[in-house]
Amino acid sequence: MKTANHLSICAGLAVLITLTAGSSSAAAEGPRANRAFSKEFSGAMIKEGDAIREWHSALASAIGTKYALTLQGIGPYQARALTNLRLALAAAKTKADQDAAPLVLNEYQKMEQLSDKYLAKRAILSYIELDALSDDELDQSVIACGKSLEAMAASGQFREDEACH
Questions:
Q1: Whole-prediction pTM value?
Q2: What residues are paired with 7 via a beta bridge?
Q3: Which architecture, in CATH terms, is 25-159?
């Protein structure tokens, strides 16, 4: 739920994080300050991106090499990404942080859907092509969103991007 000064996010395992708009001093610093990420959020967002990439790499490697695709193999990567997601959401203080937080959450949720999709196929012993991810729209969406968030983190500025919606 998002209102002008309030954002509530629920992600995995019944986690609820509520973010409220920063102090009026941020508004007094001008429009550029409202678009800049806090140091804490920027660092947490980068760590979350790293965790998502590692999770994606583990999934892609398991699919591409016909290695056993199991929750035991993928689960630790997902758990790390969830931990880093929670830290990133908790670190969101500035307006830019709060604007980017739902995009970071969306990237996690897309990766979770992708992972769950292939784990479900494996659970029913469905054949998974070695190059299954190359034509998977959800996979392409995860990659595009990750690149968008990486660019935002590198610039330190929020910008709206449809790749993460």
A1: 0.80
A2: 2, 19
A3: Up-down Bundle (1.20)
